Automatic annotation (TrEMBL):
Belongs to the enoyl-CoA hydratase/isomerase family. This is Delta(3)-Delta(2)-enoyl-CoA isomerase. The lineage of its organism: Eukaryota, Viridiplantae, Streptophyta, Embryophyta, Tracheophyta. It comes from Nepenthes gracilis. The keyword RNA-binding does not apply. It is an enzyme of class 5 (isomerase).
Amino acid sequence: MCTVENRGSILVLRLTGIGEHRLNPTLIDSLRSALYQVKSQASSSAGISALVTTADGKFFSNGLDLAWAKSSGSRSSMMERLQHMLEYFKPLLADLLTLSMPTIAAVTGHAAAAGFMLALGHDYVLMRRDKGFLYMSELDIGLTFPEYVTVAFREKVASPEARRNLLLRSAKIKADEAVKMGIVYSAHDGEEATLEAAIRLGEQLGARKRNGEIYAEIRKSLFPELCKHLGLVGRSIVAPRL
């Protein structure tokens, strides 16, 4: 499901296998367990500087596991499962927002719906330009957005035009266009180049060895409405380096 490996000072969280990496309770649990491992390693080692999240295969993540929801049988049970997954996904975003290090998503395949949200939950998104797109599919499949998703887009995607294209047109956005929209930090040729660029960025961000707890609190302060929806409370920390 997920692995965590060291690449020098960088921890690489990888969604493994060649499937769509659909987000169901099992995969969400696996991701949260991996992030707990990342947090534990970071707290026990001063040499860890950043997290890079990536995935094997054609997909970064193709969103919620609709097949799992439908397998429940009745329409009412399906809707209950969908609602359950939407609520179950929220703590995963909270884990990313509170992680005491820079976080980078190396998107080397399609990132759709909740898979796009998973990438957007990182501080930086790097993307492969020759394959893959970002896509919010809800309008096309007939689902509304939970409030925390629209809040995340309001606070993390500055351009009203970009939000309109993504949420009201369900546009499929490739890497270079996403860079112009300010959603993606940089675009790269190929899977390996994207991952290596993410690792280099992580090394640059971690080079000054800043206080991770303060980094996390400043990150939370940038997205106050999203933090409110995720049940996160800010706190003041004073750890001067003077």
